[in-house]
Specification:
The complex is a heterodimer. By secondary structure, chain A is of the alpha/beta class. In chain A, 32% of the residues lie in helices and 20% in strands. The two termini of chain A are 20 Å apart. Chain B is an alpha/beta fold. Chain B has two domains: 197 residues, Peroxisomal Thiolase, Chain A, domain 1 (3-Layer(aba) Sandwich), CATH 3.40.47.10; 110 residues, Thiolase/Chalcone synthase (Peroxisomal Thiolase, Chain A, domain 1), CATH 3.40.47.10. Chain B has nine helices and twelve strands. In chain B, the strands form two sheets. Chain B has a ten-stranded mixed sheet, with helices on both faces. In chain B, strands 2-3 form a two-stranded antiparallel ribbon. The longest helix of chain B has 16 residues. The relative contact order of chain B is 0.17. Classes of the chains: A alpha/beta, B alpha/beta. Chains A and B meet through helix 3, helix 5, strand 5, helix 6 and helix 7 of A and helix 3, helix 4, strand 5, helix 5 and strand 8 of B.
């Protein structure tokens, strides 16, 4: 019999809360604030688009110049999640506690520095290069708390954070772990900015998910982690669960490297499979946290996928995207959005889709435009999509 | 006891020519692609790692008797890719450093994300099931096999292509030298994919072998923990191990000590593919079940370690021999 998997801790570092204040993150999202602004972390003056949602790295706890920014943010969010769960380190068998990190770029800042210095400064080249491999984040976090169970790095483009949590959920549900801290982390760098700029998917001004006049996405950055535990383990130590991960699925579009399937085939299949995994009817879903990047094709595709997966109920369910507030933090996106679902369930409030200015006839669902909505949320669906036709969905329920 | 997983197809491919190219008529890959939805139209390959991975995937599915193109979402992929894209990333960013925004290639950029290789396989073979890419250094391929086994044991998939793809390029070798971990080898590449199915649903063929246990370890006693947990996963005693095959090892003494502590006292064979990083573990599994492998009775233990993550993995498999 599968073990129930509860969430007992949330840690988030985002442009809205660089200090890690979780309640400020949530209040800012619900107030419709945005972290998108002019890029400060590198000189973007040569690029046609110059906005992103950056974390004020000076405000990071224990900020260190020699720590790779994604690792720095991951470390902060990871420990905040453990603190929130009421434990700095797992008190049980460390062999049954693990870390799963979703990341796309890992320590690419270090690779940038290495390549920049290659021709000029041999000593500078190797500094911190050991923080470059994608797996360095998970390894560092696990070592820092002595976890010796599953330590994995998942890289499934913009679905990485969702897949990391989903895999963690499965490991606990199947009985192969008691505690998994799962989430994602990524930091903005010129490497990724230049690529998305070349693909012409970046907005020149602001992010307007699902709005007819949307012009593209803005890069974001940050880290988010959830502490997942066996329900019995959490109960044994008296922890108060914030909710349950009740279902998960991943599916591939199998059509294109950078463009989504026009009808949202893979995302719909992932959502349907996650509902089936959680034995959940479509009409039980009371909130959908959308991927909602603000690109033309994603928002069309996603609307169709929600219609297919939820059927007639799609028109009744509130859907919102936090990308207008947070930008797109790649590997951290799915983890931040899972945190949003849990906080929506906790407080009975759904955050808005900011910058929603004009209805798109092909995006005809309820996107909670601009103003948060008070309502009871017991069951939420968080969906993610990414390059390579990656799709993932998490079913999140409140605790009775 | 947890359910075994059936290994019913293996595909192995090694590095060929370099650079972008269009697959020409008569090539092995063109033959493979002719059965696919593209109908044999030219497929532009950006990097040799795509060709290696595609050939390995095609062979594994063909050997398993899976009709191509696959279609539907019953079959997925779990791929370990770590260092395989470092050369692409380095060349992409060197373009930006040289020419600014104009040097950013929209063709190259999508290939800088690790999941691109799994995506290319999914697109060309029409695999719409789960798609997971893991990055665990030398253990990437092992971790992919582990995820596939979990998925199959829980009945979430009809089959999974699992394994690793590697492209060791000069940029990667240079970087290793700068962090004082010289590889000592030449640029090389390879891919190895296994087609795994749930034991119960594979009645159409006997399969090549059964994967009966898998585990990972991390930290101080990672190798010992992985072997011990793997034995428990398979419900085997140490004396039931017939041989040990080493996929990659950071310290031979630690491995020997871990085996001694667990009580495994059998011959150790070092895999010739141990220098293939993400591919090393699945390649060692493939070697172990090959007809030419030493037919020692008993289960075969495959062990791999990674120097950076400090983790290790172990897998036990048995073929027709007992």
């Amino acid at each position: 019999m599968a073990e129930a998997v509860v969430v007992t801790g949330i840690g988030v570092i985002s442009p809205l809360n660089p200090d890690g204040d979780r309640e400020r993150f949530w209040a800012s999202l619900c107030a419709g604030e945005t972290g998108v602004g002019q890029i400060r972390s590198f000189d973007a003056s040569a690029y046609p688009c110059r906005v992103a949602a950056e974390v004020d790295r000076g405000a990071l706890r224990e900020a260190g110049a020699e720590i790779e920014p994604a690792l720095n943010m991951a470390e902060a969010a990871f420990h905040l999640a453990l603190e929130h769960a009421g434990t700095r380190a797992h008190g049980g068998d460390p062999g049954r506690a693990g870390v799963i990190v979703g990341t796309v770029l890992g320590g690419t800042h270090r690779a940038e520095r290495y390549l920049r210095a290659k021709k000029t400064d041999a000593d500078e080249m190797a500094k911190g290069l050991d923080q470059y491999p994608l797996r360095a984040i998970a390894a560092h976090l696990a070592r820092s708390v002595g976890f010796s169970g599953p330590v994995l790095t998942v890289s499934t483009a913009c679905a990485s954070g969702t897949d990391a949590i989903g895999i963690g959920y499965r490991k606990i549900a199947s009985g192969s772990a008691d505690v998994i801290v799962a989430g994602g982390a990524d930091a903005i760098c010129e490497f990724s900015f230049s690529g998305f700029c070349a693909l012409k998917v970046l907005t020149p001004d602001t992010v307007r998910p699902f709005s007819r006049n949307r012009r593209g996405l803005a890069l974001g950055e940050g880290a988010a982690f959830l502490v997942l535990e066996r329900e019995t383990t959490a109960a044994h130590r008296g922890a108060a669960p914030l909710g349950r991960i009740a279902g998960y699925a991943s599916r591939s579009d199998a059509v294109h490297l950078t463009a989504p399937h026009r009808e949202g085939r893979g995302l719909a299949a992932a959502a349907v499979a996650a509902l089936r995994d959680g034995e959940c009817r479509p009409d039980e879903i009371e909130y959908v946290s959308a991927h909602g990047t603000g690109t033309l094709y994603n928002d069309w595709m996603e609307t169709k996928a929600i219609r297919v997966s939820l059927g007639d109920h799609a028109r009744a369910v509130p859907i919102s995207s936090v990308k207008g507030a947070l930008g797109h933090p790649f590997g951290a996106a799915g983890a931040m959005e899972a945190a949003v679902c849990l906080l929506a369930i906790r407080d009975g409030i759904v955050p808005p889709t900011v910058n929603f200015e004009e209805r798109d006839p092909e995006c005809d669902l309820d996107y909670v435009p601009n103003v948060a909505r008070r309502m009871s949320v017991r069951t939420a669906l968080s969906i993610s999509a990414g390059f390579g036709g990656q799709n993932a969905a998490l079913l999140i329920r409140g605790v009775a | 006891m947890t359910l075994p997983v059936r290994l019913s197809g293996i595909g192995i491919s090694s590095s060929t020519d370099k650079g972008p190219r269009v697959v020409g008529a008569g090539s092995r890959l063109a033959t493979a692609l002719s059965v696919l939805p593209q109908g044999g139209s030219p497929v532009r390959l950006f990097h040799p790692i795509e060709e290696m991975a595609l050939l390995a995937a095609y062979d594994a599915l063909s050997v398993a008797g899976v009709p191509l193109p696959v279609g539907g979402d019953g079959i997925g992929i779990a791929l370990g890719v770590d260092e395989g894209i470092d050369g692409i990333k380095a060349r992409y960013y060197q373009g930006v450093l040289s020419d600014g925004p104009l040097g950013a290639s929209p063709m190259a950029f999508p290939f800088t994300t690790p999941n691109t290789i799994a995506a290319r396989i999914s697109i060309l073979l029409d695999l719409r099931g789960e798609s997971l890419t893991v990055c665990g250094g030398n253990l990437s391929g092992a971790q992919a096999i582990g995820l596939a086994m979990e998925t199959l044991r829980e009945g979430r998939s009809d089959g999974v292509l699992a394994g690793g793809a590697t492209s060791v390029e000069q940029e990667f070798l240079d970087a290793l030298c700068h962090v004082r971990r010289p590889d000592g080898g030449q640029p090389r590449g390879g891919a190895c994919l296994l087609f795994l199915e749930p034991q119960v649903s594979a009645g159409k063929a006997d399969g090549m072998a059964a994967l009966i246990g898998y585990a990972e370890g991390f930290g101080k006693d990672d190798i010992r923990d992985a072997i011990q947990c793997c034995l428990e996963d398979a419900s085997l005693f140490p004396e039931q191990i017939g041989s040990v095959r080493v996929a990659s090892v950071r310290d031979s003494c630690l491995l020997s000590e871990a085996l001694r502590q667990v009580g495994v006292n059998t011959p150790i064979v070092r895999s010739p593919a141990s220098n293939l990083y993400s591919t090393s573990f699945p390649a060692a599994v493939a070697e172990a079940v090959a007809p030419s492998a030493n037919g020692t009775p008993g289960a075969i233990l495959v062990v791999g370690t990674d120097c950076l993550a400090g983790a290790s993995a172990a897998l036990i498999q048995v073929g027709g021999r007992q």
